[in-house]
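B., you asked whether I could sanity-check this one before it goes into the benchmark set. Here's the sequence:
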Amino acid sequence: MDESNITFHPSEGPENISMHRNISTQEMVWEILTPLWVIMIISFLGFCENGIVLWCLCFQIKRNPFTVYITHLSIADISLLLCTFILSVEYIAGFGFSYGVYYYITTTLSIVFLLGYNTGLYLLTAISIERCLSIVYPIWYRCHRSQHQSAIVCAVLWTLSFLMTVAEHLTCKDDLTNEQFDDANHCQAVLIFTWILTFMIFIPLMILSSLILVIRIHRNSLRPHSSKLYIIIVATIIVFLIFAMPMRLLYLLNYHHRSSLLSQQNHVTIVLSTVNSSINPLVYFFVGSSKKKRFKESLKVVLSRALADGLRPRSQEVGTSLDIAETIF
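And here's what the prediction gave me:
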């Protein structure tokens, strides 16, 4: 008899039935715990990487408009990775944060996780658009860009992300029933607006500006000291679209087709999202490091080379041209 066709029947006795249940339960537990361990390890490593980058950006590297965006992007990634690490540890340890004060802890972590995710999307779009404008309309960009534009844009995007995250949480709770038609309608309206904002505004703008950057890089029309910056932008956006977009799609569809989504699929998308937030520091390092001196240069030198703006304000360029003229004459 083929062993694959053997099944357990009630006549086989309670011992065999309990053994079969224990084996199936253990398999289900390992199927759930394995991705959680992967999430925990990746999120911890990514948290350390982004923490080092954030420390260098704040205390070691001279600030420019681009490093301001990268600083806020690192903060968003750190927030996301910290939440995934704590939640994975909580589930692996079996604390079960589902009642009382622990429920609010889990809810807060979930909100911060989504806040970091949305902010990362918005920041990447702003970075790509601004860099695209700087090479398509360089004179207009240098004349109209204010000194604190990066900080203002980051503040606006953080505010937008916070409002969208809170709106999703308040209107689209897990305990919606058929009797709560008003809440369901509000949830649907928020999800439609989120879908439009994400997939009809931010993502198309991000892809379009990235394609323009790719074309300029391919034509070698950028300065050598600024080409690394645009390579980092394009690489970061490609990584985001590959690893982070599946989670957002599944998250939005989850409210309408909750029964058709398996927990393993949710785990896979969260793993991909943690990979996206953890891989950015590696992109900065490998693009900024020299091939001949890789792993021999300090992190400060590598990040300074990778995140060099390459664009001087108009006042600095005028001052530089005057200095050159004085030197010649």
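One thing to flag: The CA atoms of residues 36 and 236 lie 25 Å apart. Otherwise nothing jumped out at me.
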